[in-house]
Amino acid sequence: MTARRGLFISFEGIDGSGKSTQARALAAHLGEDAILTREPGGSAGAEDIRKLVLTGEPGRWSAETELLLFTAARRDHMERLIEPALRQDKTVITDRFADSTRIYQGATRGDLRATVDALHDLMIGRDPDLTFVIDMDPATALARGLARRSGEDRFEDFGLSFQQTLRAGFMTLAETAPDRCIVIDGNRDVAEVTADVIAHAQRRTR
Ligand code: ADP
Ligand code: TYD
Question: Does residue 3 lie in a domain region?
């Protein structure tokens, strides 16, 4: 008999698209059965790696080095938080997961997608059951993201055309994985977007 396992949900999209806001809202709606986490980060070791990759000059790391750092962080996050929680039948909601690596490291600065996929198969080996891809206008999203002044803006600092490339990448990815990806229109009021997300999640958790 296979042990029952919880549902694994990710939120993806460009910087400032509303992922964190919506992930928080879904977690609040689901209550104590849900665990909210994020990438890069979510475990102590992965949070240390987060500081390395999100601060400093845009050229601080090559796409290849970033890929290794993000994958190391994800492996730690999986081992220490995600897998144990799913085994306890919790719903795990993560603000970004492997799709971010596929797009940010795999398809923006040269074509590293085959390397990204090979490393994912070798070291991570699973994808979420359900992925919300929040789609929105890159100029508005970039303005929202930079307005936060989080000090973690290394990727926002690549500029608008980078965000446009990312958006196209996420849309293509959603088309190629329709079994788990749901595209959500993020150009609406927070409450409207949340209602949409909750309705889709309820269909999967029932
Ligand atoms: P992300 O996690 O995708 O970077 P956030 O959820 O942190 O995005 O949102 C970025 C900023 O935009 C925050 O200041 C947030 O309050 C605001 N925001 C999020 N969703 C909306 C929305 N639907 N309309 C207007 N502002 C929003
Ligand atoms: P996040 O804190 O979610 O940023 P934002 O709120 O601006 O969306 O993620 C930090 C940055 O890390 C974001 O610009 C995307 C990038 N990133 C990658 O490049 N590869 C990855 O695998 C992950 C998880 C994130």
Answer: no
Q: Which ligand is in closest contact with the Cα of 156?
A: 2
**141 domain-assigned:** yes
Helix (H) or strand (E) holding 135: strand 130-135
Is 12 in contact with 100 (CB distance < 8 Å)? Answer: yes
pLDDT in tens, 31-81: 999 999 999 999 999 999 999 999 989 889 999 999 999 999 999 999 999
Give the contacts of 40 (CB within 8 A, at least 6 positions apart): 46, 47, 49, 50, 53, 54, 69, 70, 73, 74, 96
170 lines ligand 2 (CB under 6 A): no
Q: In what order do the strands lie in the sheet with 8-13?
A: 34-38, 91-95, 8-13, 130-135, 181-185
Ligand nearest to the CA of 54: 2
Spacing, Cα 41 to ligand 1 middle (Å): 19
pLDDT digits (tens, 9 = 90+) for 119-136: 999 999 999 999 999 999
At residue 109, the pLDDT reads 78
| Distance (Å) from CA 141 to ligand 2 centroid | 13
Compute the distance from residue 39 Cα to the ligand 2 centre, in Å.
7
Full domain range(s) for residue 57: 8-205
Say how many domains are in the chain: 1
Answer whether 0.85 is exceeded by the pTM: yes
* pLDDT confidence of residue 108: 82
The answer to whether residue 87 is domain-embedded is yes
